[in-house]
Amino acid sequence: MMATAAPRLIDRPLVSETRKTTSFRPLKAWRHFRRLVADKEATEEVFHIIEAMKGKSSHKQAWDFIQSETGQRFLRDEVDIPAMLDDHARWAECGPETVAQHYIRFMKREGLSAAGLVEESHKWLPADQRPQDLTEWYFTRLRDTHDLFHVLTGYGRDALGEAALLGFSYEQNHNLGIKFIAYAAANEIRKATGTNAPLFAAIREGRELGRKADKLAHMDVQRVMLEDINEARARMNIGKPVIYRQCLAQLESEGHLGADLMKPEAAAA
User: pLDDT of 13-38, one tens digit each?
Assistant: First the structure.
């Protein structure tokens, strides 16, 4: 007997019958945020917050992209983004100023992998419990390109960099959970350090940059990886995070950057 061909990704339904649209739950989001403050490496908490505050606009954007010409092409290609990004040998011959080489240096420096972020998301909701629909494909695409967002925007993985990048991402994806974490994190940094650096202005700057930039989650990842990073930023209208850099300089001068910026010990660092 001939083996049955695996179903194609593009043949999945737009919205599975098993998909549940959760209600807006700010108190649940706050509880998970407090856990994230206690352990900023607890990435699982971020997914809880985003789900608790996911709105209709996030779904509409997903459906619009899925039905677009570019979205349909990506679905036909069925590229495994985490596997492609983690295959560093694939990008070995790229020049030092390509996005690929900047990405590899960033991931090695931070001790990260694209597969690791997938594993963290599965702690929140295992793969076998996720709806097998195209909406899920889009939301996993947002997850899988997160660290590439860091590289392209210039935001670091310090607490303020993560918060400002979430401000950028909110204007791209319109999930209120992301906006909530961005401002709440800036407030935690302010309380923990006592700094008068313009933290909230850095979040607003991230939002402004996100509004002006192309939708980064909609990029052709393989094409972008091969580009010169400055040319890629120019093509996708990604501006420089000037206020964020000013905040980092001030926090460093105050002796805070070596500490966890979202914990009270930072004030005594």
Answer: 998 888 776 656 667 777 777 776 67
